[in-house]
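Reply to dn_fold:

You asked what the input looked like. This is it:
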Amino acid sequence: MNVADKRPALLVVEDDRGLQRQIRWSLADYDVVFAEDRDSAIAALRRIEPAVVTLDLGLPPTPDTTEQGFRILEEMLSLAPATKVVVLTGQNDRANAVRAVALGAYDFFAKPFDAEVLGLVVARAFRLADLERENRRLQASRVPDSVEGLLTRDPGMLKVTRQIERLAPTQASVLLLGDSGTGKELLARALHVGSPRHDKRFVAINCAAIPDTLLESELFGYEKGAFTGAARTTPGRIETADGGTLFLDEIGDLPMPLQAKLLRFLQERVIERIGGRQEIPVDVRVVCATHRNLRERIAEGDFREDLFYRLAGMIVTIPPLRERAGDATLLAHAFVQRFSKANGRERLALRQDALDAIESHPWPGNIRELENAIKRAVIMADGQTIGADDLGLSAPREAMSLNLREVRDEAERQAVIKAMARCDGSIAKAADLLGISRPTLYDLLNRFGLR
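and this is what came back:
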């Protein structure tokens, strides 16, 4: 059968054989799969992943009550929340219909049913399921406009960008956690750009890059004559950011005495310059970032717990580059274009061995390390291509296959091995766990030599 002509799968949970025949005749436009009890219904749900299910509430072992039907409804919606479940109720069973919809059912219809009405209800459910699925696909592939300069197609990183988009318009303090070089400042700027403070200043300070003796004056400013060399009154970074956003990078390296002073500012929203006595009110949104484990720092006595809870109004964890599928090569191509243009070297391209090396390298320095490697290679490479040796990397001995059939076969093999182990060799249980039929599982076992 042509894929375009394939009928959508419809799961019908109904134990009455007469009604089964009637439903099959009424819904001939669908590939109808029947289940008569809880076990077969859940197994079919996993196996065919239907967009729409019709569910009779009166099912064995207690067909005279709705207990089993509601149990199956809750379990189905837990396993597949996007599934549209249409419940089948008695003619005068309004209370159960309302309860089913409250639990998450899409719609209900009464039996004996009108075939035309049932067809309309099911068709509408499929149409809505298709729209929601397309919407989820578009949302998953969209990078928020506010995160300017970010290149990613990794689901984990896309989730981070959606978190940033939701947090940006709020006044919540945000703590960005991630390894060095993962783009914490880029996301901090996105929080500022997407906020009502976007027309005010974004002030960044790296707490680990400034000596402890100077950090206090950098943050809080000083009055003229406060110390030797203080020739004039100078506002600090916090005061300079008034009305805008203050980004404190590497907050985990802030010295303990300054932690107490920063905590007071966060509580009172006033500062005192060094050598001053006047309290200066400051309206600023604070965004912090660190690559350190702050809870471990707290346990070691190097970070104040009360400050942590002040800063961590909302926590966003940024995945390292090695965990972002496909992003290393995506970024590498972009960096080659950028640095080639900047250095007057047009039409430079990455060779296959370079791409394999980029994909296999763990990139402990994350995006910053990759950027520096590409920049160096663009300048130093001979000819019009960049190889693994130009990047200072070794090509992997066995590059990962991108042949979809090979990838799929290996994924299926690993899943079958794990399912058989978890189910202690039971074919029936393993098939249910994998969401496939027993004959299909037998075929897979034979194909992979696992019998």
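The two ends are 31 Å apart (CA to CA).
Hope that clears it up.
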